[in-house]
Every structure is written in C-alpha cells, then in structure tokens.
Amino acid sequence: MWSYDIIKIIMKKNIILSAVITAHDEGLLAHKTMQSVFAGLMKVEEAGYKYEIIVHIDNGDKATRDYFRRYKKDEKIKVFENKFRDPGSSRNYAAEKATGKYVAFLDADDLVSDNWFINAISELENSKTETIVYPEAILTFGLDLKNNVLSIQKPSYEKGKDVVIALGENRWCSVVMAKKETFIKIPYEKLGLGYSHEDYVFNIKMIEANIHQAIAKETVLFYRRSEKSRLSSSNQGHATIPYMKLFDFNSVSGLKEVLIEDFDERFRNRGYRAYKRIRNNNFLNFFITPVAKTTLRILNNRSNSTQKIPKFVLEEWKKMNKIELQLYPHKWLVNKVLLYAAENQIAVGNMYLKLVKQIKNKKFDYVFIVPWVVRGGADKVMFNYIKALHELYGWNIMIITTLPAENWWNKNLPDYVDFVDFGNKTQFLSLEQQETLFTRLIVQSRCKRLHIINSEYGYDWARKHLGLLGNNYEINTSLFCGEFIPGSDLKGVFSYDDPYLLSIYDKVKNVFTDNETIIKKTVEHNGFSEEKFKAHYQPVGDIKIVKPKNGLINKDKLRILWASRVVPTKLPNLVAEIGKGLDPKKFQIDIYGERSEEISKDIFNGIASINYKGVFNGFSSISTEKYDVLLYTALDDGIPNVILEATAAGLPIIASNDGGVGEFVKNNRTGLLIEDFLKPEAYVKVLEEILKDASRLPFYVENAQRILLSRHSWKNFVEMVKKDFF
Fold first, then answer.
1. Which element (helix H / strand E) includes 77?
2. Which of 47, 148, 284, 590 is the most buried (most CB within 10 A)?
3. 358-535 homologous superfamily
C-alpha cells in the first residue's frame, strides 16, 4: 500500500491545475489579468505543483486576439478560439480541454490575489466531500463606480437557508475552482433569449446537487465593473435566471423562513432592528410608510460602511497596486467602501416562501396581472375570461395583484384560481426586491401566457423585461376607456394605451377591449395596427331577463335610477344640475354609488329631486322594480356593465353619447341617447317627454334585450374567446 506522501509526490508530477481565462473583448485589460494569474501560479509552482493556462477567446475582438497572440510560443499556455457568443459554452469547452485535476475559471478583465490558486488547491485537497471553492472576498472596482463595493463570501449554510438566500441574490461569484469532473458532471447552461447569469444558475445547481461550497481563506477577487461588461448589460436588460427546480413551488413548500439573527454579527445591522420596530407598529406604518420603505431599501442593499474591513483585504488591496494602479486602499477610498452581503436579501426569499405556501395549484396555464380585485368593471371582465378559459380548456389560473388594496372578491374565487396578494404583502420591500420576487414568481409558475389588465406595475415590469417576454411568453392586455386626471377639470386624460401599451406593443399578441370605439380611438392616437385588437362584448352571465313594464309605475311621477361610482368621469355635477332642473313632485332620482374624495359630500344636498342612497353591493342588490328608467352619465366610457344589467332587469336606458355607449344604446331604438351630453337641459327635456309619453319605452327595452341575448350572451362571449385566444 502506497503511503500518503508517495501519492502526493506522484500527483505533483501531474498537472494539478488548469487555470482558465475566458476572454472576448477585454483588449489590453487582459494583460493585468494575466499578470495576476502569473503571480498566483508562481506560488503553485513553489509548492511543487504543475499547472497549465488555458485561454479561451469566444467571439473575441481584434484587440483581444492580438494581445493573446504573444503567448503562442509559451508551452504552458494554450489559446483556443471559438464563436459561441455564450459564456456558459465557453467555460464548458475550456473544461473539456483542461488536463489538470482541478479547473479554475477567471474572466479576462478581473484580478485575483496571489494566494488564490494555492489556497483553493489546499482547500480542495483537504476536502473529504465533493467541493467547489470561491475567493473569500470580492472587491468591486472600476472607472464607472463612485465607490468600491466589498462582499465577504461564506461557505454553504444548511441547504434550506442557502435556498432562501439564493432566491434573492446570487450567493457566490463566477471565479471558482473545482475538480474537472465536477464541471463536466454539472456543466454551465447556455442561456439567452432574456435569460442570463450563467454563474448564478451554476451555483444554484451546485446547491441542488448538495455539492459543498467552500471558501479559500483570505483570498480576494478584484472584480472590474464596466458598463460594457456582460453582467452590466444583463442587469440593464433586466435579464433573469430561468426556471430552477430548486425554487419550484412544490420544492420550497416545506422550507422555513430565515431570520437575519440566524447569521453572524456581520449581517446584523442595527438599522434592521429599527426597521422592524417600524414594520411592526401599525401607527407608524400608517404615517411613515415611505420612511419604512426607504429604510428597508437602503438596509437590504448595503450594510454600514463604517464596519471594519478585514485586514487581509487591505493587505491584498495594497499588493495589487503593483499590477493595477486603480487599486490601493487610500484612506479616503476605504472610508467610502460599501459593504454588501447576499444574506441581506433574505427578505425576498422569505416573502417568496410566504406567497408560495398560499398557492394551492402548483402549475398554471394563465396568469392575470391586475392592480387589485375589487368591485369594478375591469375586474368583472377578468372574471369573465377566467370562467370562459376554464370552461373551454380546464385551465388553472393565477391572479397577481400589484397594488396595496382591500381586495373584495378574492375570497369567492373558484378552486382552479389562485390569488397572490403581491401588492399588499410586498409593499415594504425595496423596488429592486419587488422586481426580483415578481420575476421569480412569473418564471417559477412555468406559465407562458400572461395577461395585464390596468396594472401600471405589470406594464412597467413587462417594459423592463421585453427580451424575456418576447422570446418566452405570450402576452395579452385588456384596454378600456381612459380616465381623467384628478384636478384637471376633466381635461387631462390618463390611459393605459399611452405610454404603457405603447412601450410593450411589439411584444403583445392581443389587445382585448369591450367595445369597438376604444379600438378606433387608440389606433388613431398611437398608430397601432387594428389586427392586434379584439372587441369582446361582455356577457350578462346568468342574469334573469325581466320583461319591460307597460307604462310607468306612477303616471304622475318618473322614478329614475342612477348607479355607478360617484367620480368626476361619471359626471355627478351634471346629475346635480339635472336634478335642479326637475320638478321634485314629478321626478325622483335615486343615486347609488361610492363617492370618491374628489367629490364633495354635499354635492346632492338641498336638491329635492335627488336622493343619495350611498354604496351598493352590486347591481343585483338594488330593487330595480321600483324604477322606471336608468339614467347613465359618463365621459369617454366603454359599454358599462350597469347598462347591460339594467337592460336585463327591464329598465329603459337614457345615456350620454360618449365613448362606446352608443354601440349598445341606439337612439329611439334601444334607448335614448343624449347628443349634447354635457348640457343638463338636454336630459331634462328627454325626461319630461318620457313623463308625458312612456309608450315607446317597452319597445326600446325589447330591442335592447335582443342584442343582450345575442351579442352579450355567455355563449357568444365564449366563442369569441375561443376564436381570438389562439
């Protein structure tokens, strides 16, 4: 039996290390990298080990190719060239060409401390399990950075803890060393089409494979950050990692949340305790939510820069000045160093666990991205689509809300629908953390069909991830009439077509609306093509059709129903003027609807013909048999659901002719349409004429109900969905 010392002597005769430098367009910056590599390999040679250097140039520019030609005659350096245009493929190729027991990767613009190679070899030689090794510290520098950033990497924690951290941040850098067979067994993935961060994916796969991540003590990676680097371009393009089995909804369902106190003192920021006091205090939350958000955003991204920088970092920083003059721990630089730790992103992972544990269905066919789930027309449209898609295809649906709100309808969702309350649950995360979490939820849902309805956050997220969406997802949107900006005196208009739909238009498959008028308007306004737009007239569902009344309830008094949100766009001021122009002995207007803060609470006070009833729980909660007609007023509206429901209930419609209303209410055929719809006297005149002669009202209702039963039937809606969704 050979002794350990003899085996060690034999091993030293073989190549123990293949130092791989991957290059593409670093040019002369690669010279500094090579100098740091030579300094580190000198220590490997002094220890009696043999090594080789492999340079792999992937789609390199002329300056980079010209630089590495100088090493052609060096027997220890092998230079290979390819045009993979992919970092993962580049590393995999180099690993195949390596002849060393261990392979170490380094990009051609980074630098390593001279003890990196030998300390990493020592860590691997002494490891009793399969291991991959990283430098202990990462000092990020570069001309594009105002401050250096220092990260201290830690070895593997317990697996569950590693998973929670990795959900929010890449735990380890791309500079690694491991046995060649480790890289062959678990190769880097070829990413693209909106996905990136090959090293992040590789590190997650290592966690999944239970391979120990170790740290080479007191070693430093000097990471050169440039606006031209692949990492920078990936970040600027908001590229993300693909679906990872380790993060699967089922895989994480049994994991526990991780507390910041679970880490060593370095991660326990005093500010976190202050934030926690804010977060747990409802009174403070109400008044200083922005403060809490700002506090958390700062704390989650950087710890206190006055914390002590490890002595070994300062020493290696000084030594590196011989190679890179940008690097030296000047006192004024050290005082401005930002300390960063992946562990401080556990809020993302913890929130992911919370949200996922509330999800019943672990696989989804369609995802709706909406601001909230409340009593509104847009929400009814979404529920109609949900019901139709499940009826047609048996799909499981996910709803993600993006704004903090009191969601009224989420408790009555069917079993095939999952509700993710992103807006309320994540409001204390930073914007960066919210984006990371939102993206991970979308990717891990494995659903390739997304539908945005009136969500500014959804549109903004889609705009940032156009590469991801354009190559991997089918994206639909729903577009409705615009809204008037508060305080603009009904002159300033807000709409989701400009700029939101406009910003992602090229990646959108379908734009669904509930009327043709909005299509013509937005096409004219933005220059869109009509081909993407589909008008899906909304159904009345299972509402019972009531025959119209013959005549008025009371021939001497007209009872008028007005039901909607009491907001500026529904023209409540106009209704008040109409009421003032009506004789209260002959006319009564009952107004149902929640009043917005923009509308004075006294708006209907003192008007004898108007009775304000307040909030109502859906149209079905109103005793419509008590009324003769429905009065509807609005600016720039679609085909409001209340008109359809009132028609089903047997009520004739008197409505303002603006927006899509005229597609349903045809004057003197299916109702009465007011052309001068901003003049109260025009409504007063029509109402007075009805009181004199109501004989044609049943005729209007019957015609309207025929349209309701054909164009607005559930069967017709399902057929439109089936035709236009594929």
1. strand 77-82
2. 148
3. Glycogen Phosphorylase B; (3.40.50.2000)
